[in-house]
Amino acid sequence: MGVDAKFSLVSEGSLLIEIGDKIDYEISKKISALSLAFKKLDIIDITVSYSSLLIDFDPLKHNFNKFLSEVKAIYDFTMLNFSPSDKELNIREIFVKFGGQYGPDLKYVADFHNISEEEVIEEFTSKIYMVFMLGFTPGFAYMGILSDRIATPRLSTPRLVVEAGSVGIAGNQTGIYPSRSPGGWRIIGRTEQVIFSPEREDPFFLKPSDYVRFIRVDC
């Protein structure tokens, strides 16, 4: 195999595939490629994380050894033909109001790094961020990787309420709260973009392997 992988049966109908142990652009692209390739199998669902996939299958329909052989064959073929191309990025533009009532932690992030609030905003909006996975609440996209200039630890005590659309920082990741909920990320701004809506045909505005560009708008 081109990449070392660990295959683990974690329940009678769930197979976990791990190909790394860190947040990494290339690993995430491989996870996306594998997720697409495995959909040709007769399975129930696929859940992706930073460096792993969980394949749920019906154990009554599959002989596990045969199923595992099929999975490994698809894995080998996908990795053999994998090319980390950035030619066709799906870039989502998200407009954000920074600071003040919209970003109560912007000053903290600036003070933590001994830079100005303006420099935090400029650094944050100068990059395109990859969606690694969804989790925490429906539609919450874990994105990165933030530069060391603005990467900031999360709150020691989470807030009881974070408004929907709030843009936060936690370590070297950023994310957007899709709904009003508790949360411990440093909030630097807010967007009016609806990130998750069960009423839409496709409820999720962001998906793994998407890219996001944040654009500043006046408060």
Automatic annotation (TrEMBL):
Hydrolase keyword on record: yes
Organism: Thermodesulfobium acidiphilum
Domain of life: Bacteria
InterPro entries, alphabetized: CT_C_D, Cyclophilin-like_dom_sf, PxpB
Sorted UniProt keywords: ATP-binding, Hydrolase, Nucleotide-binding
Domain annotation Carboxyltransferase: ranges: 5-206
Protein name, UniProt field: Sensor histidine kinase inhibitor, KipI family
GO molecular function, one term: hydrolase activity
